[in-house]
Amino acid sequence: MKRIIFILMAIALMLASLDDASAQAYRRHNRRAVRAVGSGDYDRAMKQFNLGVVKDTSNAFLLKYNMAYALHQDRRDPALDMAKDSLALRYLDEIADDIAGTEYEYDYHFSRGALAIDMEDWQSAVDEFKKCMVMDPEDMMAKENYIYAKEHLKNQQNQQNQQGDQDNKDD
């Protein structure tokens, strides 16, 4: 009986050390990727984030969040900006359920709002920054982005109404 307990304890320790090793690998790759983003080496950052996801799936949602951030920050080629923003949005969509109710939920909605502004999706930007303001009513940056997006949404709706009026006159 003592031998079985010893074997079970040894297995538990081995599993714990494996979890620890994968968490260390995640942190190592995440640190490297964050440094690469800071220095503008987005290709290296994406490689490190991807390696981290492979090494530790329990933290995959954080790495995907960071990958979305890196894609959004990479503005080297304006022709690819919309595609990168779309991919970043897809990464954020993939982790929506994992983020809900965590300490990262505010940052998640703020990032989605910022992407929506860059993609000129004013309604989504308004919705995301409204969520941020509910979570942190004192955050001036969320309020400013909300007002900015709300003004652009209003202008867009006015232009659509004017276009509709013009089309009706042409008929």
The secondary-structure class comes to mainly alpha
The parts where pLDDT drops under 50 for at least 5 residues are 4-19
**Mean pLDDT across every amino acid position:** 80
Instruction: Determine Rg (CA atoms, Å).
Output: 22 Å
Note the run of SSEs as H and E. HHHHHHHH
The biggest beta sheet reads: none
Which percent bin holds the helix content?
over 70%
Overall 3D form: elongated
Strand content: under 5%
Quantity of strands, as a count: 0
Distance between the termini: 90 Å
Number of helices: 8
Describe this structure in words.
This protein has 171 residues and is mainly alpha-helical. It has eight helices and no strands. The longest helix is centred in the first third of the chain and has 37 residues, at 2-38. Residues 4-19 have low confidence and may be disordered.
Quick gist of this model?
The protein has 171 residues and is mainly alpha-helical. Helices cover 83% and strands 0% of the residues. α2 packs antiparallel against α3 (60-73), α3 (60-73) runs antiparallel to α4 (81-94) and α7 (122-135) runs antiparallel to α8 (140-170).
